């Protein structure tokens, strides 16, 4: 029986899991959970994950949340090529280091720009003050600098000569602010060259397919009836206002 992957490609961690499964020919049935329609709060999805966030995985009776846990589960269950999660102690440590760091850094910093520039104006009906955007951009730039100087350094990829889970998890997060119209690669030749290598390793077609929704988000979000996204308001007030 195929594994069920619950996801919405608007979401960065969903894209990493989706790309990983497709790239490695892992048999999965994709079940879309539309975040904009609030389907993460449905009774049906609650049976898959009480965390109520995507991605989530169901493998028979076994349900798993959290993208990193899912990626590692898939890598181990399907014995994907070593380079994704190298057996070499220090290479694996580099992957683990990046995966541990990203949660509280680039993940939030890239995501925040998307919320401030695309979702909050739509849902709250107001533009976000420039000083909030400037502060968010400063944080994002700090994270991008660390990715270049600390994690990529002079290597082709984060763990060495080949793509790993670290690069995959990094690229999907870095693309989130790009979806709000911000060219994060401008003036960053090292990051751009790394992005090109990651895209080539994933395959352009799969990369583009996974990123189509987020890269079209500025237009598609305009068409959504904002009153249908009221359920996001408490979260916005708590996290951003
Ligand atoms: N740490 C989790 C984060 C998952 C997450 O934050 N998912 C977001 C989309 S990017 C979500 O489902 N949000 C729904 C909500 O907050 O209502 C992971 O890596 O899987």
TrEMBL record:
Annotated catalysed reactions: RX + glutathione = an S-substituted glutathione + a halide anion + H(+)
One of the GO biological process terms: glutathione metabolic process
Highest taxon in the source lineage: Eukaryota
Enzyme class: transferase
Organism of derivation: Epinephelus coioides (Orange-spotted grouper)
Enzyme Commission designation: 2.5.1.18
Gene3D superfamilies membership: 1.20.1050.10, Glutaredoxin
Protein name stated in the entry: glutathione transferase
Entry similarity comment: Belongs to the GST superfamily. Theta family.
Domain GST N-terminal residue range list: 1-82
Cited CDD domains: GST_C_Theta (cd03183), GST_N_Theta (cd03050)
A GO molecular-function descriptor: glutathione transferase activity
């Amino acid at each position: 029986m195929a594994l069920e992957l619950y996801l919405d490609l608007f979401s960065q961690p969903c894209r990493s899991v989706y790309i990983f499964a497709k790239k490695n020919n892992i048999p999965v049935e994709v079940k879309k959970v539309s975040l904009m329609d609030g389907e993460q709060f449905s009774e049906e999805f609650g049976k898959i994950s009480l965390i109520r966030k995507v991605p989530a995985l169901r493998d028979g009776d076994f349900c798993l949340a959290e993208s990193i846990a899912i990626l590692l589960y898939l890598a181990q269950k399907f014995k994907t090529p070593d380079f994704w999660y190298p057996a070499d102690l220090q290479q694996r440590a580099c992957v683990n280091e990046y995966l541990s760091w990203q949660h509280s850094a680039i993940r939030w910093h890239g995501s925040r720009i998307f919320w401030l520039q695309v979702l909050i104006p739509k849902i709250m009906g107001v533009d976000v003050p420039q000083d909030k955007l400037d502060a968010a951009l400063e944080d994002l730039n700090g994270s991008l600098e660390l990715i270049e100087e600390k994690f990529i350094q002079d290597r082709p990829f984060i763990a060495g000569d080949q793509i790993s889970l670290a690069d995959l998890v990094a690229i999907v997060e870095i693309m989130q602010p790009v979806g709000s119209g911000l060219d994060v690669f401008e003036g960053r030749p090292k990051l751009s060259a790394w992005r090109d290598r990651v895209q080539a390793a994933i395959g352009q077609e799969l990369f583009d397919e996974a990123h189509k929704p987020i890269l079209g988000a500025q237009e598609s979000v305009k068409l959504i009836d904002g009153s249908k996204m009221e359920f996001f308001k408490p979260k916005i007030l708590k996290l951003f206002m």
